[in-house]
Amino acid sequence: MRNNTTRLDHVVLWVADPVAAAAFYETAVGLTPVRVAEFAEGKAAFPSVRVNEDTILDLAPHRFADQMRMLPGSADSAGHPVNHVCLSLPAEAFDALRARLEEHGVPVSGIDHGLSGARGNATRSFYFRDPDGNIFEARHYDD
């Protein structure tokens, strides 16, 4: 990891059940859980799942909304998922993710081609929703 570039550190998702959400992201999406046992034991405020060595998704329980005081109106964000979060994967991992989601009965969209993103136009992409209604796009680029 290099400390001389700007990068995405984390995205906080509101979830009804952080342990169940972590299980979904581990089994259906293939992400690595972080602090799930500690959360279940009351030793961590929330669990996370690791996207890569630089980025995690924090799984914040809705009950934390009243504790969001960093800016006026922050508590109002509970239950309002972002438009979508996009995961960029190598082609093989893209195919594996789609197959794993389908095996877990997670509805997925059709395949789109050429959608614009951080690295230009993606070769393929599709969308899926987590159990809390957060929408994800999965894509890959030809490198």
UniProtKB/TrEMBL annotation:
Q: Which Pfam families match?
A: Glyoxalase
Keywords associated with the record: Dioxygenase, Oxidoreductase
Provide the VOC domain boundaries.
7-141
The answer on whether this UniProt entry bears the keyword Oxidoreductase reads: yes
Could you give a GO molecular-function term held by this entry?
dioxygenase activity
Q: What is this protein called?
A: Dioxygenase
Which organism is this protein's natural source?
Streptomyces corchorusii
